[in-house]
Design a protein that fits this description.
Layout: H1 7-20, H2 32-71, H3 76-85, H4 92-101, H5 103-114
């Protein structure tokens, strides 16, 4: 009895992998064994950087809040401490957006927190 290879499934698997490698340079997008290694490595980078992105955005928000707070005569740490003391729950993303795009509203938040 001949050996069954299930060519349909293996062809689909190879096609999917080469589709993921589309846009890679040279053999990385053409040769299955080379593409497999680079797709796997790319997936590792994607997994890692989805977490790193959260860190870098938080750093950006803190920098923007600090710059806005210094315009009003205080620092980031004093502003956050005052907000926590008054139990004002505004996250850093919203605070940074206010500091960058709506300085009047940010000034009101700072004035209320420090009063």
């Amino acid at each position: 009895m001949p050996r069954s290879q299930n060519k349909v499934a293996s062809h689909r698997r190879r096609k999917r992998l080469l589709g993921q490698a589309k846009g890679y340079w040279g053999a990385r997008s053409k040769v299955l064994t080379v593409a497999k290694h680079h797709v796997d490595k790319g997936m590792q980078y994607a997994y890692r950087d989805r977490r790193t992105k959260k860190r870098t955005f938080r750093q950006l928000w803190i920098t923007r809040i600090n710059a806005g707070a210094r315009l009003h005569g205080t620092t980031y740490s004093r502003l956050i401490a005052a907000l926590n003391k008054k139990e004002i729950d505004i996250n850093r993303k919203i605070l940074a957006d206010l500091a960058a795009n709506n300085p009047a509203a940010f000034a009101e938040v700072v004035k209320f927190a420090l009063a």
